[in-house]
Write a structure and sequence with these properties.
356 residues, alpha/beta, Rossmann fold, 3 domains, five-stranded parallel β-sheet
């Protein structure tokens, strides 16, 4: 409230000063010079205060842009007027042309400066000197995720966008594993090379082999982190330790295992699922089944049903560091249904051959 009263007082003082100046200098001649020039001062002060009120809500960049545009175009207008020194200044047409240049160009500069004042913002001003082409998004593949093989399916579905980068030191590590004397390691390395070959053959997928190396860094994981920093990219991996170290060093990571965990179906207590009892559990009368994503399902009262499909009621879900476990129980059928099931099983048993 006090600030508003202060503004009103300043505007009133400004109007008084303008009116007093007009009556003192008397730019207009007439029968009542004080009244005429006082009215002129009042009109000018009201016009200026109205313009100030309109500019109060304007952005600083727009005001600054208007002033810059007005100043530049006024300078250009004066330069054009000076360049036309050879013209006949006594001609009304020439004087009108000079006046038009002096009025029109600053007006256009003022209007264009106000409209384009947003380009004076630091972020947009810097973007004028940057490359307008979109930046590439690099996805750097780790040795473990290549050997795992699931990354090929993710790339094929289109969920992993950007340019895939395979560092030269990762290829050397894959080749070393593929040439191992251990048959298991050798098969893993060869599978990784096959996965890379499959990704390279996919349509619309850009794969580049990076020759960037860091001789001063010995560990492959640290080289991947340095390469991700250089390219401003993300590391694609399923290595838990690499994931943590990269995050501590400020490098973004795409973890395949976290993606697989996030895509697992949500199971709530009380739901019914059909599972295949594969083996017996550790506790008495328990059976163990597995979902398609590898989640273990421990079922009570299912030891006698090994090798069969059962409808299981979920009792609880346990999330551990090793993964997720689902606990359920098999509800025994009613007595009549149980007898019918036993008679059906007995009818399917092979009968011994009759003796002669």
């Amino acid at each position: 409230m006090f600030a508003m009263n202060g503004f009103l007082l300043v505007r009133a003082l400004f109007a008084v000063v303008v009116i007093y100046t007009a009556t003192l200098i008397q730019p207009l001649d007439g029968p009542w010079p004080l009244l005429t020039n006082g009215a002129l001062g009042l009109f000018v002060s009201v016009l200026i205060i109205g313009a100030e009120a309109r500019l109060r809500d304007a952005a600083v960049t727009n005001v600054l842009g208007g002033l810059i545009g007005f100043g530049i175009c006024l300078t250009i207008a004066k330069a054009i007027g000076t360049a036309l020194f050879w013209a006949d200044t006594g001609s009304n047409q020439v004087r009108f042309l000079h006046s038009l240049i002096i009025v029109v160009l600053p007006y256009l500069g003022l209007v264009m400066g106000v409209r384009k004042g947003e380009w004076l913002e630091p972020s947009k001003f810097i973007s004028l000197f940057q490359d307008a082409r979109p930046l590439k998004r690099y996805r750097i593949l780790d040795t473990s995720v290549i050997i795992d093989g699931r990354v090929a399916d993710i790339v094929e579905t289109g969920f992993l966008d950007g340019t895939l980068v395979v560092p030269q030191f990762v290829l050397k590590e894959l080749q070393f594993v593929a040439d191992s004397s251990d048959p298991i390691k050798r098969n893993r390395g060869r599978r990784g090379l096959d996965v890379l070959h499959r990704i390279q053959k996919m349509a619309g997928v850009e794969v580049i082999i990076s020759d960037l190396d860091y001789p001063q860094v010995k560990e492959v994981d640290m080289k991947l982190i340095e390469l991700a920093r250089t390219l401003l990219g993300r590391i694609v991996t399923n290595d838990f330790n690499l994931n943590k170290v990269a995050q501590l060093r400020g490098v973004e990571v795409l973890n395949i295992n976290e993606l697989a965990s996030g895509l697992r179906p949500v199971v709530l207590p009380g739901e019914v699922m059909n599972v295949f009892i594969l083996k017996e559990g550790k506790e008495h009368n328990q059976g163990v089944a597995y979902l398609d994503d590898g989640t273990m399902v421990v079922v009570d009262n299912a030891r006698s049903r090994i090798g069969r499909n059962l409808d299981v009621v979920v009792t609880s879900v346990l999330q551990t560091t090793a993964g997720r476990m689902i606990f359920g129980k098999h509800v025994e059928p009613a007595q009549g249904e149980s007898q019918a099931s036993r008679s059906d099983d007995a009818s399917r048993r092979p009968r011994p051959a009759a003796s002669a």
